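Anyone? Bumping this.
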Amino acid sequence: MKRRDEVVVGATIVVALAVIIVAALWLSEAELGRGGTIHVARFRTVGGLGVGDPVVLSGVRVGRVAGIRLGERNWVEAELQVYRDVTLPSNPAVIAASASFFGEWQAGIISLDQPPDDPKVRRDLDEALAAADDAWPGAALPDIGQLTAQAGRIARDITLVSSRVQEAFDSTAVRALQQSIRNFGRVADRIAEFTEQQTNLLGAVGQRLEQGSDVLHDAALSLQTSLARIDSATNQGELESILENTQEASGYMRDATRRFSELIDVAHENQESIVRVLQAADSIMTRIQNRSGTLGMLVGDSTLYIETIQAVIQLRTLLADIQANPRKYFKFSVF
Amino acid sequence: MRAHGYAPSLRVRRPIWFRVRLADTLPHVPRSLTTRVSGWYAGFGRLGHFLADMARGLRDVHTWPAQTVAQLLRIGVNSVPIALFVAAFTGVVLALQASYTFTGAVPLYFVGTLVGKTIMLELGPVLTGLVLAGRVGANTAAELGTMRVTEQVDALETLAYDPFAYLVIPRVVASTVMFPVVVALAMAMGVLTGLVTAVNLLDLSTVEFVRGLKLFYQFKDIWFGLVKSMSFGFAIGVVGCMKGLAVRRGAQEVGRATTDAVVLGAKLILVLDAVWAVLLL
């Protein structure tokens, strides 16, 4: 019996301890398995930020505020426990702000490469950045109470302005206002007429644009058809055949060019001998023209030509005589 | 039969300031008031002697640890069902009243916040303490009072047992140790029934309730309630034993001692609750 009592008491205590420990860990979101890296952020004031409040990056919870303490020169240092598997911005800063209207606060990690628009927040971040060593710069946005107070001041100002407007708004002002409204009505009528004219013009322009659009549509259709044909030709292999033929012709052209180049080289080699021939011919022609040398004398003197003609005539006569009287000139005997 | 209710106190010679009557020092104050004030004065004196005797009994380590397990079972484990019952309905009522209060003004997920905070910080320890003040305090006072009337306490002394080591310390230790255990289970039950109520009877999802529950949670919420409940257990154990051993004669005095133990225990719980709130919150 006593043994059973001890077991029951021990089991009850163990169950209660387990309940407390598990509940405490669960409620505090301790994230035992994930651990985290501690980063220190430096603020002038953290507002309503407290230990255990969430740390968010782009709206996603990535850790919790592990501690808040007063630092040197009235700086407030907040320890942020960020989960290990979180990729942080290269140039991080922390903004403490209200998470809702009901007093919840959170520390939002931002990148200083994209600083917030609020000039006061920027100034706070710059100041914290200048003062910080390894700590992230931090700034706190005004809480709901401050915003409400500001809104209250604005509301009072609006009320004051309204009362002053009410005081200034007497019967003269009403008549002036009525006249202004009538003038405004006339201006509105003119604007309406002008608008109608412009509307008609715009309608005509629109009609032409519509026609132009139709033409463009037809052109687009034609282009589409051409593209379809090209696409069809491509699909049937004709374009490929053309390209192959072109490639072959290019080869022939390249071969012909090479041969032509060789021909040019040969012509270039023969150029000197041709020049020499021409120079010799030129020399001969010059001498003929100057009537020097044999050919020049022959060209310049007709006697030789006449004598040559006579010699030819005599030669033909001799040949005829030989043909007529061969025994006169040739004599054959066997023995 | 002892003149002052428990024997060990007779062996202590009281200082001169303890023996001076308040009415003799303030002759112009009405006698009823001086009597009442002197009663408180004497009560604190008896409490001091009781605690001193209890501290002396702690040295008898061969006696009280063996008796403590049985008291742990009687005071702690056997009190769990009634504590869970009270906590369960407390959670239900809290969730419903919170939703009734928050309608149209505050988001309903704050029901989780209110239920969690209230159960852990206040209602869990205090309601459980009050319930156990009735159950444990009355039981202890009646049991020890009856033992005193039937001279069982004298018999223990005759057998060379220190009544404090044999009767008082096991009960006080058991109530001090087991009150936080019972309160922890009651907290869990209260929050659980609050969650079930919020999900089934209110337009609230489990996720929203848990969000509200975690919203302003601090670890202090839990240990504060447990520390309080430990002090409640100690107070109820001491008061029950003290009232029980103070019985002199008859069943009528046993009944009165039982009532006094419950009433004084409840008062002490509320006073201690306020003291802890001032000191720790």
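Late reply, but here is one note on the structure posted above: The longest helix of chain B spans residues 110-149.
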